[in-house]
């Protein structure tokens, strides 16, 4: 029996290292990384078939982070999985670092599967990988994490259409539905509802979960894995999750804490 | 002088299509992608014989470029084909981030480049694509001159690991290079040696430059004619060696003066060996509908324009 509390503890550790590395960097995006910490924990410590010591293992599942600004939660998850030493997290966003502000393939950080930053590319890249796996008749999967604001990019829907057309049953998309983006609430900036109907209309199966509830996330992946066509999990999250005073506040999309705030935020996470 | 004669007229896109089909036979990793222009790109033979390795993306070029990037990350060699207009400007962000910056092994195959696209007019006649693509670090840029050279270039880029922009065209043009001639990426081909003037031509303008050279030679001007099929990386050694001898340069291309082959050569010469130079290129204007040959004349890209540019630069030399 899977002990959810172990994963919940891991998610706390990931959040704490996200805060530490962003404080150290002095710039970056805190909100999405905290909001996605539970999903990343489930992916790296439950769902993905991967081997940290063999980052080019041919039979691994692939994780495409389409919202590159959530790089910190990816880097921290990779470090905690053993892809590289956690000390390297201190180099985030610094000159010469493999931990670029947005993930970049050319820096060859183990575990980074693609370059992202400019939005709306990731799902297409995941489609290409999924097609490649079908040509090679392999059974592993591609997971792609999209932001909800990112769904305003038209290219996402080009990708969605092609995934259904090619019946990519090895593709799982996860929408980080935190309902906020840089300029404010998604409903005010550019409404993306009705989201479920949109994906259904594009030929996908749709699941919904609480993206900050480890048990619920696990349940969704267990169902998604058995689907025979592309499936999207609309994961309702809170930007800044774990730190009550910033939760859901879009102003924390592209902000980082100073030393005092970081201490306070970490205390809040430990004490939840 | 080697004589180059028009034995036949063929389109460069058919050279691409024939080579792609051949690659399908010999390399299982080659995947072809197209955005609803399979016939125009001459990719239909590949699509018919290797359907499991042909990805039709529909009219969705942005998706096509990123899907190609995804395929390359998983070890495939994607050849993504569409019109040059849609293969560059429309998808610049996808190419920049997921192909060039990521240094992925994607071959961007751009047909109907330049003004010789003809009757469809300026919406489709891209004249800025060389500039756009050469600005991208890691990107190799190849603009072959005829059917045979496009065939050879297509075969060669499959062997090269990294992003490539392969530029070719729509109309039937003289096919004059030798199909057995070795194609080396980055190595210019000296078509004729001479001492008064260097002409550096690329793509469809190579044939115009051959025609111009015949006339110039009759006028007593000794021309060194060089086919620059690879615009990036530029064959600096061959260019500088030629200019050291001639000290006069004409560049010829079916592209904007801004950002094209001429600019690349001018930059090289400014740094290494300044010399009088004239451009044969399009001067900051869009094209229009018309027959390819008529457009070449109207927009100053014909043999006559090369002759006039040669005479101007010879005068400046004195």
Key terms:
heterodimer; A: 272 residues; alpha/beta; Rossmann fold; 5-stranded parallel β-sheet; two-stranded antiparallel ribbon; 10 helices; 40% helix; globular; B: 318 residues; 2 domains; 7-stranded mixed β-sheet; 5-stranded mixed β-sheet; 14 strands; 21% strand
Could you explain how this protein is built, in words?
The complex is a heterodimer of chains A (272) and B (318). Chain A is of the alpha/beta class and 272 residues long. Chain A has a single domain (4-270), classed as Rossmann fold (3-Layer(aba) Sandwich), CATH 3.40.50.970. Chain A is built from 10 helices and 7 strands. Chain A has helices at 4-25, 30-35, 37-47, 71-81, 122-135, 154-165, 186-189, 195-201, 214-224, 259-270; strands at 62-65, 142-147, 171-177, 180-181, 184-185, 205-210, 231-236. In chain A, the strands form 2 sheets. In chain A, strands 1-2-3-7-6 form a 5-stranded parallel β-sheet, sandwiched between helices. In chain A, strands 4-5 form a two-stranded antiparallel sheet. Chain B has 318 residues and is an alpha/beta fold. Chain B folds into 2 domains: 9-174, 3-Layer(aba) Sandwich (Rossmann fold), CATH 3.40.50.970; 189-316, 3-Layer(aba) Sandwich (Rossmann fold). Helices cover 38% and strands 21% of the residues of chain B. Chain B has helices spanning 12-26, 44-49, 61-73, 92-101, 129-134, 147-159, 205-218, 236-246, 261-272, 292-298, 303-317, and strands spanning 8-11, 30-34, 54-56, 77-83, 107-111, 140-142, 164-167, 172-175, 189-192, 197-201, 223-227, 230-232, 249-256, 277-282. In chain B, helix 7 (205-218) links the parallel strand 10 and strand 11. Chain B is globular. The model of chain B has no long low-confidence stretch (mean pLDDT 97). The A-B interface holds A 62, 104-106, 113-118, 120-122, 124-133, 135-136, 154-155, 158-159, 161-162, 165-166 and B 31, 52-53, 55, 57-58, 60, 62-63, 65-76, 78, 93-94, 96-98, 101-104.
């Amino acid at each position: 029996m899977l002990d959810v509390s172990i994963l919940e503890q891991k998610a706390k550790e990931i959040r704490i290292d996200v805060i530490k590395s962003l404080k150290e960097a002095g710039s970056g995006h805190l909100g999405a990384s905290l909001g996605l910490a539970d999903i990343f924990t489930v992916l790296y410590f439950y769902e993905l078939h991967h081997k940290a010591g063999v980052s080019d293992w041919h039979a691994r599942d692939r994780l495409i982070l389409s919202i590159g600004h959530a790089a910190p939660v990816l880097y921290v998850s990779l470090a905690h999985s053993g892809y590289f030493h956690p000390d390297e997290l201190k180099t985030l966003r610094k000159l010469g670092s493999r931990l670029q502000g947005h993930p970049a393939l050319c820096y060859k950080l183990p575990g980074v599967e693609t370059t992202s930053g400019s939005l709306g590319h990731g799902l297409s890249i995941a489609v290409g990988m999924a097609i490649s796996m079908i040509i090679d008749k392999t059974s592993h999967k591609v997971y792609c994490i999209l932001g909800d604001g990112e769904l305003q990019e038209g290219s996402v829907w080009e990708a969605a259409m092609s995934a259904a057309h090619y019946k990519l049953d090895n593709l799982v998309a996860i929408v980080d539905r935190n309902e906020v983006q840089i300029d404010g609430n998604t409903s005010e900036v550019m409404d993306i509802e009705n989201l479920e109907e949109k994906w259904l209309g594009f030929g996908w199966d749709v699941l919904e979960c609480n993206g900050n509830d480890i048990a619920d996330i696990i349940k969704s992946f267990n169902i998604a894995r058995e689907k025979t066509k592309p499936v999207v999990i609309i994961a309702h999250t809170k930007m800044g999750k774990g730190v009550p005073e910033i939760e859901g506040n879009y102003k924390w999309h592209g902000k980082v804490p100073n030393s005092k705030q970081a201490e306070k935020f970490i205390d809040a996470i430990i004490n939840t | 002088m080697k004589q180059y004669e028009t034995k036949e007229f063929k389109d460069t896109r058919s050279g691409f299509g024939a080579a792609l089909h051949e690659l399908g036979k010999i390399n299982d990793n080659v995947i072809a992608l197209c955005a609803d222009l399979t016939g125009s790109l001459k990719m239909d033979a590949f699509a018919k014989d290797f359907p499991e390795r042909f990805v039709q993306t529909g009219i969705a070029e942005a998706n096509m470029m990123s899907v190609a990037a995804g395929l390359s990350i998983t070890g495939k060699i994607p050849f993504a084909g569409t019109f040059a207009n849609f293969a560059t400007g429309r998808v610049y962000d996808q190419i920049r981030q997921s192909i060039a910056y990521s240094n992925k092994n994607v071959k961007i195959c751009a047909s109907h480049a330049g003004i010789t696209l003809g009757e469809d007019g300026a919406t489709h006649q891209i004249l800025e694509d060389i500039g756009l693509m050469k600005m991208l670090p890691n990107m190799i840029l190849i603009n072959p001159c005829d059917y045979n050279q496009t065939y050879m270039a297509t075969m060669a880029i499959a062997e090269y690991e990294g992003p490539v922009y392969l530029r070719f065209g729509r109309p039937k043009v003289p096919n004059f290079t030798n199909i057995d001639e070795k194609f080396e990426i980055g190595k210019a081909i000296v078509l004729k040696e001479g001492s008064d003037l260097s002409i550096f031509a690329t793509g469809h303008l190579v044939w115009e430059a051959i025609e111009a050279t015949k006339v110039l030679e009759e006028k007593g001007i000794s021309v060194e004619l060089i086919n620059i099929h690879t615009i990036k990386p530029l064959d600096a050694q061959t260019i500088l060696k030629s200019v050291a001898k001639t000290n006069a340069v004409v560049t010829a291309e079916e592209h904007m003066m801004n950002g094209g082959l001429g600019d690349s050569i001018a930059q090289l010469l400014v740094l290494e060996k300044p010399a009088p130079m004239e451009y044969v290129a399009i001067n900051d204007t869009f094209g229009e509908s018309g027959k390819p040959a008529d457009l070449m004349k109207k927009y100053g890209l014909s043999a006559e324009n090369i002759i006039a540019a040669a005479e101007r630069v010879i005068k400046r030399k004195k």
